[in-house]
Amino acid sequence: MRTLILLALVGLGAQLVDGSLGMAYGVTSTTLLLAIGTNPAAASATVHLAEIGTTLASGASHWRFGNVDGRVVAKIGVPGALGAFAGATFLSSLSTDVAKPVMSLILLSLGVYVLVRFTVQGLPTRSDKPMRKRFLAPLGLLGGFMDATGGGGWGPVGTPALLASGRMEPRRVIGTIDTSEFLVAVAASGGFLLGMAGEGIDYAWVLALLVGGLVAAPIAAWLVRRVPPRVLGSLVGGVIVLTNSRTLLDSDWIAAPEATRIPVYVVIWIGWAAAVAWSVRAHRVGARSREDGSSLDHDPTSSERTPVS
Length: 309
Hints:
Blueprint: H1 2-21, H2 25-35, H3 40-64, H4 70-93, H5 96-120, H6 136-150, H7 154-164, H8 170-196, H9 203-223, H10 229-250, H11 258-298
Helix pairs in contact: 1-2, 1-9, 2-3, 2-10, 3-8, 3-9, 4-6, 4-8, 5-10, 5-11, 6-7, 7-8, 10-11
């Protein structure tokens, strides 16, 4: 029972992150499952089975509020499903000793991306770079494969690419990615069930993650109004980097001695603290700038008033 409660909290926390940033549900929850000793393939399978419910609920909500481009969902979601199925069967064929460092390396890369992206730029914004339609298919394949093999990655791969097109509002990008992720979750789950024959998957764990995620969905809407996404992104990115760095240093690939691990951890902690401090400072500066601009717009004594003729 204690484990199920912890897993429900993991699902709740991961959904809070995803609801605030538009990404990182799979990365966060898979990282935490690996940290408690879960088999890599089973961890990703558990997360994707839970995501069938969470992405369905999220996609339905986005669709209701007009945040989804149905044409893009089909063009990126179907290739994404194919990539996810391939990634799931590939991960299922690897031994645990090989799969764990492979997954941790992918998660570490995604963690660095989240940390740097939100520390330096805050929430992703649109740009004027054009995006060709033929780019959606390979993007979906890559995102789906990364999502299945790394236990997460659909949002970190797909969201920035669609935002960079400059042709979709950020809310529609997030809604479209969240909705198409349902197809990815279904395909990845099918691949894991086929490749693992259901072995190593605890469906009580799946249910616990699902319940936690569904409970967190409305809370995330409140959280995003209270906690700056830029700061939250830096905090979460640091957790992912630290946790997966520890897994890699402990793996047979590296087997780093204690004398090496301590300096690495110190550097990560210092860099993480600096990133969070930078994000907090940048958020405060931005908030002051917006307040000053608002005051200027509404201040009746401002020099910007229209002169009386």
